[in-house]
Task: inverse folding
């Protein structure tokens, strides 16, 4: 039992921030994202305490979080990236991305980022999800496939189609 506790403590320290970022990107409410991140660890703990084997912790946690987010979508049926960018966290994220050396470049990057977030909102969730996992969470295609329970080929196709749709949306503006 001590090995499981140590393993979970280590997993929490390593993955809690990235799980929270992923949830915060996909949900409009920052507090709800935090709650789902905590629920993810509780469910994983329950799974492990029943004697079930968790081979790779990171993909297991992301898969669990993914299912919690899907359940949240089913309950709420509304999602707005605009609301998310208006929160304090969105402002902090912009501040963390810049080094402050060139104000004009910073302004252009914020404009491009806001434009991209508006365009991403229009993508179907299955494309939005894999794009976020690949380019925000820095997952490999294999890790994404493991998390969403699809083949690497399906993930590659979704990434390609999602980027193509995003490019078309940005070009049409």
Result:
């Amino acid at each position: 039992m001590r090995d499981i506790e140590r393993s979970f403590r280590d997993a929490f320290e390593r993955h809690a921030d990235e799980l929270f970022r992923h949830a915060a990107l996909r949900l409009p409410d920052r507090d709800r994202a935090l709650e789902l991140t905590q629920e993810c660890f509780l469910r994983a703990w329950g799974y492990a305490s029943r004697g079930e084997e968790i081979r790779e912790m990171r993909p297991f946690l992301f898969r669990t979080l993914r299912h919690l987010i899907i359940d949240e979508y089913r309950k709420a049926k509304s999602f707005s990236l605009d609301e998310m960018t208006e929160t304090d966290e969105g402002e902090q994220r912009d501040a963390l991305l810049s080094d402050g050396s060139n104000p004009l470049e910073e302004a252009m990057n914020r404009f491009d980022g806001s434009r991209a977030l508006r365009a991403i909102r229009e993508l179907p969730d299955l494309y939005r999800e894999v794009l976020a996992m690949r380019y925000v969470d820095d997952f490999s295609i294999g890790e994404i496939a493991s998390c969403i329970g699809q083949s690497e080929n399906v993930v590659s196709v979704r990434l390609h189609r999602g980027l193509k749709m995003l490019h078309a949306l940005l070009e049409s503006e």
